[in-house]
Protein backbone atom coordinates (compact mmCIF):
# COMPACT_ATOMS: atom_id res chain seq x y z
CA UNK A 1 0.00 0.00 0.00
CA UNK A 2 2.86 2.40 0.86
CA UNK A 3 4.43 1.73 -2.53
CA UNK A 4 1.12 2.42 -4.28
CA UNK A 5 0.69 5.72 -2.38
CA UNK A 6 4.22 6.76 -3.31
CA UNK A 7 3.53 6.07 -6.98
CA UNK A 8 0.33 8.14 -6.82
CA UNK A 9 2.24 11.09 -5.31
CA UNK A 10 4.97 10.87 -7.97
CA UNK A 11 2.34 10.74 -10.72
CA UNK A 12 0.60 13.81 -9.33
CA UNK A 13 3.89 15.72 -9.26
CA UNK A 14 4.63 14.73 -12.83
CA UNK A 15 1.28 16.14 -13.93
CA UNK A 16 1.39 19.42 -12.00
CA UNK A 17 5.03 20.39 -12.45
CA UNK A 18 6.49 21.66 -15.76
CA UNK A 19 7.50 18.91 -18.14
CA UNK A 20 10.93 20.34 -18.97
CA UNK A 21 13.83 20.84 -16.59
CA UNK A 22 14.38 24.47 -15.71
CA UNK A 23 17.09 26.14 -17.75
CA UNK A 24 18.20 29.78 -17.85
CA UNK A 25 20.40 31.65 -20.25
CA UNK A 26 22.58 32.60 -21.86
CA UNK A 27 22.94 36.17 -20.56
CA UNK A 28 24.68 38.29 -23.19
CA UNK A 29 25.32 42.03 -22.91
CA UNK A 30 25.52 44.52 -25.74
CA UNK A 31 29.04 45.06 -27.03
CA UNK A 32 30.57 48.22 -25.59
CA UNK A 33 31.01 51.17 -27.91
CA UNK A 34 28.94 53.29 -30.24
CA UNK A 35 26.55 50.48 -31.13
CA UNK A 36 25.45 50.48 -27.47
CA UNK A 37 25.20 54.29 -27.39
CA UNK A 38 28.14 54.44 -25.01
CA UNK A 39 29.94 57.74 -24.67
CA UNK A 40 33.43 58.43 -23.27
CA UNK A 41 33.32 55.19 -21.24
CA UNK A 42 36.99 55.47 -20.30
CA UNK A 43 36.19 58.63 -18.34
CA UNK A 44 34.50 56.54 -15.64
CA UNK A 45 38.01 56.08 -14.21
CA UNK A 46 37.89 59.77 -13.27
CA UNK A 47 34.66 59.36 -11.30
CA UNK A 48 34.68 59.18 -7.49
CA UNK A 49 33.68 55.87 -5.92
CA UNK A 50 30.21 57.13 -5.15
CA UNK A 51 27.04 55.88 -6.81
CA UNK A 52 23.42 57.04 -6.79
CA UNK A 53 20.82 54.49 -7.89
CA UNK A 54 18.11 56.62 -9.48
CA UNK A 55 15.97 53.67 -10.61
CA UNK A 56 15.71 50.01 -9.62
CA UNK A 57 12.51 48.53 -11.01
CA UNK A 58 11.53 44.98 -11.86
CA UNK A 59 8.42 44.46 -13.99
CA UNK A 60 6.80 41.02 -13.68
CA UNK A 61 4.10 40.25 -16.23
CA UNK A 62 1.16 38.64 -14.45
CA UNK A 63 -1.58 39.16 -17.06
CA UNK A 64 -1.22 38.87 -20.84
CA UNK A 65 -3.88 40.62 -22.92
CA UNK A 66 -4.25 41.01 -26.66
CA UNK A 67 -7.05 42.03 -29.01
CA UNK A 68 -7.68 42.06 -32.76
CA UNK A 69 -10.56 43.26 -34.90
CA UNK A 70 -11.62 43.49 -38.55
CA UNK A 71 -13.78 46.09 -40.24
CA UNK A 72 -17.21 45.48 -41.64
CA UNK A 73 -17.06 44.22 -45.22
CA UNK A 74 -19.48 44.01 -48.17
CA UNK A 75 -20.46 40.45 -47.35
CA UNK A 76 -19.67 40.21 -43.66
CA UNK A 77 -19.86 42.16 -40.41
CA UNK A 78 -17.16 43.25 -38.01
CA UNK A 79 -15.22 40.78 -35.88
CA UNK A 80 -13.36 41.25 -32.65
CA UNK A 81 -11.38 38.76 -30.60
CA UNK A 82 -9.73 39.32 -27.23
CA UNK A 83 -7.46 36.97 -25.34
CA UNK A 84 -6.48 37.24 -21.70
CA UNK A 85 -4.10 34.81 -19.99
CA UNK A 86 -3.45 35.00 -16.26
CA UNK A 87 -0.26 33.66 -14.71
CA UNK A 88 -1.48 31.33 -11.98
CA UNK A 89 0.86 30.41 -9.13
CA UNK A 90 2.71 33.75 -8.80
CA UNK A 91 2.34 35.57 -5.46
CA UNK A 92 3.01 39.29 -4.92
CA UNK A 93 4.87 38.55 -1.69
CA UNK A 94 7.33 36.35 -3.61
CA UNK A 95 7.84 39.04 -6.26
CA UNK A 96 8.71 41.54 -3.56
CA UNK A 97 11.09 39.11 -1.85
CA UNK A 98 12.86 38.40 -5.14
CA UNK A 99 13.20 42.12 -5.84
CA UNK A 100 14.60 42.80 -2.37
CA UNK A 101 17.10 39.96 -2.70
CA UNK A 102 18.34 41.17 -6.09
CA UNK A 103 18.71 44.75 -4.86
CA UNK A 104 20.62 43.68 -1.75
CA UNK A 105 23.01 41.62 -3.87
CA UNK A 106 23.49 44.56 -6.23
CA UNK A 107 24.42 47.06 -3.53
CA UNK A 108 26.58 44.52 -1.66
CA UNK A 109 28.52 43.96 -4.89
CA UNK A 110 29.11 47.71 -5.22
CA UNK A 111 30.17 48.04 -1.59
CA UNK A 112 32.65 45.17 -2.00
CA UNK A 113 34.38 47.30 -4.65
CA UNK A 114 34.62 50.27 -2.32
CA UNK A 115 31.62 52.26 -3.56
CA UNK A 116 29.62 54.49 -1.24
CA UNK A 117 25.89 54.55 -1.93
CA UNK A 118 24.32 58.00 -1.97
CA UNK A 119 20.80 57.90 -0.53
CA UNK A 120 18.03 59.68 -2.40
CA UNK A 121 17.46 62.05 0.52
CA UNK A 122 20.92 63.54 -0.12
CA UNK A 123 19.76 64.63 -3.58
CA UNK A 124 16.72 66.59 -2.38
CA UNK A 125 18.26 70.00 -3.08
CA UNK A 126 19.58 69.48 -6.59
CA UNK A 127 17.94 71.13 -9.59
CA UNK A 128 16.91 67.97 -11.56
CA UNK A 129 14.60 66.95 -8.68
CA UNK A 130 13.05 70.36 -8.06
CA UNK A 131 9.31 69.79 -7.56
CA UNK A 132 9.71 65.99 -7.59
CA UNK A 133 8.42 63.71 -4.85
CA UNK A 134 10.63 61.46 -2.73
CA UNK A 135 8.91 58.09 -2.16
CA UNK A 136 9.73 54.85 -0.38
CA UNK A 137 10.15 51.61 -2.30
CA UNK A 138 8.93 48.21 -1.24
CA UNK A 139 5.61 48.42 -3.08
CA UNK A 140 3.92 46.70 -6.02
CA UNK A 141 2.47 49.03 -8.66
CA UNK A 142 0.12 47.36 -11.15
CA UNK A 143 -0.69 50.55 -13.07
CA UNK A 144 2.72 51.37 -14.53
CA UNK A 145 2.62 48.95 -17.49
CA UNK A 146 -0.60 47.13 -18.35
CA UNK A 147 -0.48 43.51 -17.19
CA UNK A 148 2.75 43.97 -15.21
CA UNK A 149 3.47 44.26 -11.50
CA UNK A 150 6.26 46.81 -10.97
CA UNK A 151 8.27 46.08 -7.82
CA UNK A 152 10.71 48.45 -6.13
CA UNK A 153 13.04 47.27 -3.32
CA UNK A 154 12.19 47.65 0.34
CA UNK A 155 14.38 50.33 1.87
CA UNK A 156 15.07 51.94 -1.52
CA UNK A 157 14.03 55.60 -1.90
CA UNK A 158 13.60 57.30 -5.25
CA UNK A 159 12.12 60.37 -6.93
CA UNK A 160 9.12 60.64 -9.20
CA UNK A 161 7.79 63.75 -10.92
CA UNK A 162 4.10 62.99 -10.45
CA UNK A 163 1.47 60.25 -10.49
CA UNK A 164 -1.38 60.37 -13.00
CA UNK A 165 -5.01 59.49 -12.33
CA UNK A 166 -4.40 55.84 -13.23
CA UNK A 167 -1.58 55.51 -10.72
CA UNK A 168 1.28 55.60 -13.24
CA UNK A 169 4.49 57.27 -12.12
CA UNK A 170 5.90 60.00 -14.38
CA UNK A 171 9.59 60.89 -14.50
CA UNK A 172 9.69 63.42 -17.32
CA UNK A 173 10.25 63.06 -21.05
CA UNK A 174 14.00 63.72 -21.15
CA UNK A 175 16.53 61.61 -19.26
CA UNK A 176 18.05 63.70 -16.47
CA UNK A 177 20.83 61.33 -15.38
CA UNK A 178 23.76 63.50 -16.51
CA UNK A 179 22.31 66.51 -14.67
CA UNK A 180 21.82 64.38 -11.54
CA UNK A 181 25.48 63.35 -11.65
CA UNK A 182 26.50 66.97 -12.09
CA UNK A 183 24.32 68.08 -9.17
CA UNK A 184 25.88 65.38 -6.96
CA UNK A 185 29.46 66.51 -7.70
CA UNK A 186 30.27 63.82 -10.21
CA UNK A 187 28.59 60.88 -8.46
CA UNK A 188 27.93 57.96 -10.81
CA UNK A 189 24.21 57.52 -11.53
CA UNK A 190 22.76 54.06 -12.20
CA UNK A 191 19.37 53.17 -13.67
CA UNK A 192 18.19 49.56 -13.58
CA UNK A 193 15.00 48.21 -15.14
CA UNK A 194 14.26 44.52 -15.70
CA UNK A 195 11.25 43.42 -17.76
CA UNK A 196 9.98 39.83 -17.35
CA UNK A 197 7.12 38.81 -19.68
CA UNK A 198 5.66 35.30 -19.49
CA UNK A 199 3.65 35.11 -22.75
CA UNK A 200 4.20 35.92 -26.42
CA UNK A 201 2.19 36.09 -29.64
CA UNK A 202 2.69 32.71 -31.32
CA UNK A 203 0.35 32.80 -34.32
CA UNK A 204 2.28 31.70 -37.39
CA UNK A 205 3.00 34.10 -40.22
CA UNK A 206 1.08 31.88 -42.64
CA UNK A 207 -2.02 31.98 -40.42
CA UNK A 208 -1.86 35.77 -40.10
CA UNK A 209 -1.53 36.20 -43.86
CA UNK A 210 -4.44 33.84 -44.52
CA UNK A 211 -6.83 35.65 -42.17
CA UNK A 212 -5.98 38.99 -43.80
CA UNK A 213 -6.68 37.61 -47.27
CA UNK A 214 -9.94 35.90 -46.32
CA UNK A 215 -11.20 38.73 -44.11
CA UNK A 216 -13.92 38.54 -41.47
CA UNK A 217 -11.70 36.58 -39.08
CA UNK A 218 -10.03 37.81 -35.90
CA UNK A 219 -7.62 35.26 -34.49
CA UNK A 220 -5.22 35.38 -31.53
CA UNK A 221 -2.71 32.73 -30.48
CA UNK A 222 -0.29 33.03 -27.56
CA UNK A 223 2.16 30.71 -25.79
CA UNK A 224 4.18 30.87 -22.56
CA UNK A 225 7.58 32.49 -23.08
CA UNK A 226 9.11 33.45 -19.74
CA UNK A 227 12.23 35.58 -20.20
CA UNK A 228 14.17 38.73 -19.45
CA UNK A 229 13.18 40.98 -22.32
CA UNK A 230 15.81 42.78 -24.37
CA UNK A 231 13.62 43.91 -27.25
CA UNK A 232 10.92 46.46 -27.96
CA UNK A 233 9.69 49.36 -25.88
CA UNK A 234 9.58 47.23 -22.73
CA UNK A 235 13.23 46.18 -22.67
CA UNK A 236 15.56 45.50 -19.75
CA UNK A 237 18.50 47.82 -19.25
CA UNK A 238 21.35 48.66 -16.91
CA UNK A 239 22.88 52.07 -17.65
CA UNK A 240 25.52 54.16 -15.84
CA UNK A 241 26.11 57.92 -16.18
CA UNK A 242 28.85 60.28 -15.04
CA UNK A 243 29.75 63.93 -15.47
CA UNK A 244 32.25 66.15 -13.74
CA UNK A 245 31.11 68.45 -10.96
CA UNK A 246 29.48 71.85 -11.45
CA UNK A 247 32.89 73.50 -10.87
CA UNK A 248 34.30 71.73 -13.91
CA UNK A 249 31.34 72.98 -15.93
CA UNK A 250 31.97 76.58 -14.89
CA UNK A 251 35.55 76.32 -16.20
CA UNK A 252 34.41 74.82 -19.49
CA UNK A 253 35.98 71.40 -18.75
CA UNK A 254 33.03 69.23 -19.65
CA UNK A 255 33.14 65.44 -19.37
CA UNK A 256 30.09 63.28 -19.90
CA UNK A 257 30.22 59.50 -19.86
CA UNK A 258 27.56 56.88 -20.50
CA UNK A 259 27.92 53.10 -20.24
CA UNK A 260 25.05 50.94 -21.46
CA UNK A 261 25.56 47.48 -19.93
CA UNK A 262 22.21 46.17 -21.18
CA UNK A 263 21.02 42.90 -22.67
CA UNK A 264 21.95 42.01 -26.24
CA UNK A 265 19.08 39.53 -26.56
CA UNK A 266 16.27 37.95 -24.55
CA UNK A 267 17.24 35.61 -21.72
CA UNK A 268 14.93 32.57 -21.81
CA UNK A 269 13.76 30.98 -18.55
CA UNK A 270 12.55 27.53 -19.54
CA UNK A 271 10.76 24.77 -17.66
CA UNK A 272 8.43 27.04 -15.67
CA UNK A 273 5.22 26.97 -17.72
CA UNK A 274 3.74 24.09 -19.68
CA UNK A 275 4.27 24.31 -23.44
CA UNK A 276 0.75 25.02 -24.71
CA UNK A 277 -1.22 27.44 -26.89
CA UNK A 278 -4.01 29.80 -25.86
CA UNK A 279 -6.44 30.94 -28.55
CA UNK A 280 -9.36 33.27 -29.23
CA UNK A 281 -11.08 33.32 -32.65
CA UNK A 282 -14.02 35.30 -33.99
CA UNK A 283 -15.38 34.27 -37.41
CA UNK A 284 -18.09 36.43 -38.93
CA UNK A 285 -21.33 35.22 -40.48
CA UNK A 286 -22.44 36.27 -43.96
CA UNK A 287 -24.70 39.31 -44.10
CA UNK A 288 -28.44 38.68 -44.39
CA UNK A 289 -30.17 40.30 -47.35
CA UNK A 290 -33.92 41.02 -47.44
CA UNK A 291 -35.56 41.87 -50.77
CA UNK A 292 -38.24 44.54 -50.21
CA UNK A 293 -39.07 45.00 -53.89
CA UNK A 294 -37.94 48.57 -54.57
CA UNK A 295 -34.86 48.18 -52.40
CA UNK A 296 -32.80 45.59 -50.52
CA UNK A 297 -32.13 45.62 -46.79
CA UNK A 298 -28.76 44.23 -45.67
CA UNK A 299 -28.36 43.16 -42.05
CA UNK A 300 -24.71 43.08 -40.97
CA UNK A 301 -23.91 40.50 -38.32
CA UNK A 302 -21.02 41.38 -36.02
CA UNK A 303 -19.18 38.67 -34.09
CA UNK A 304 -17.16 39.13 -30.92
CA UNK A 305 -15.20 36.48 -29.04
CA UNK A 306 -13.52 36.81 -25.67
CA UNK A 307 -11.41 34.16 -23.98
CA UNK A 308 -9.85 34.32 -20.51
CA UNK A 309 -7.60 31.46 -19.47
CA UNK A 310 -4.86 30.73 -16.97
CA UNK A 311 -1.30 29.50 -17.45
CA UNK A 312 -0.33 27.49 -14.40
CA UNK A 313 3.19 27.32 -13.02
CA UNK A 314 5.02 26.20 -9.93
CA UNK A 315 5.64 29.42 -7.99
CA UNK A 316 8.86 28.15 -6.42
CA UNK A 317 10.38 27.26 -9.79
CA UNK A 318 9.23 30.58 -11.26
CA UNK A 319 10.91 32.55 -8.46
CA UNK A 320 14.13 30.56 -8.76
CA UNK A 321 14.34 31.00 -12.52
CA UNK A 322 13.56 34.72 -12.47
CA UNK A 323 16.05 35.30 -9.67
CA UNK A 324 18.82 33.34 -11.39
CA UNK A 325 18.42 35.13 -14.73
CA UNK A 326 18.12 38.59 -13.15
CA UNK A 327 21.03 38.05 -10.77
CA UNK A 328 23.30 36.94 -13.61
CA UNK A 329 22.31 39.97 -15.68
CA UNK A 330 22.99 42.41 -12.83
CA UNK A 331 26.33 40.80 -11.96
CA UNK A 332 27.39 40.86 -15.61
CA UNK A 333 26.41 44.51 -15.93
CA UNK A 334 28.48 45.43 -12.87
CA UNK A 335 31.48 43.51 -14.20
CA UNK A 336 31.19 45.53 -17.42
CA UNK A 337 31.00 48.72 -15.35
CA UNK A 338 34.04 47.79 -13.22
CA UNK A 339 35.99 47.12 -16.41
CA UNK A 340 35.81 50.84 -17.20
CA UNK A 341 36.42 52.12 -13.67
CA UNK A 342 39.49 50.14 -12.66
CA UNK A 343 43.05 50.34 -13.98
The whole-number mean of residue pLDDT values reads 83
Q: Which range best describes the helical content: under 10%, 10-25%, 25-40%, 40-55%, 55-70% or over 70%?
A: 10-25%
Radius of gyration: 26 Å
Order of secondary-structure elements? HEEEEHEEEEEEEHEEHEEEHEEEEEEH
User: Number of helical runs?
Assistant: 6
**Biggest pleated-sheet summary:** 7 strands, mixed
Described by its quaternary structure, the protein is single chain
Distance between the termini: 68 Å
List unreliable stretches of 5+ residues: 6-20, 247-253, 289-293, 296-300
The tally of strands reads 22
How does the helix and strand content classify structurally?
A: alpha+beta
Given the C-alpha coordinates, what overall shape results? elongated
Question: Notable features of this structure?
Answer:
single chain; 343 residues; alpha+beta; seven-stranded mixed beta sheet; 24% helix; elongated
Amino acid sequence: MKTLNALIILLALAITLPLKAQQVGPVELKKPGRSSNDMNSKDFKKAPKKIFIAEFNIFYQVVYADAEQTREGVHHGKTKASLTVIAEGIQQEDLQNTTDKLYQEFINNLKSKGYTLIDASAASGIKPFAGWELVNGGNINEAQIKGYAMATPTGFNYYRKKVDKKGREKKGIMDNSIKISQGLDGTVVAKINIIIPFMTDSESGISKSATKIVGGISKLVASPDLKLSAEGVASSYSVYFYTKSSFAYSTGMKTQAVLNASLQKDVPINGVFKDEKFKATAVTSLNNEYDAGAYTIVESIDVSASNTQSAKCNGKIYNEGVYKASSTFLNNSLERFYGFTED
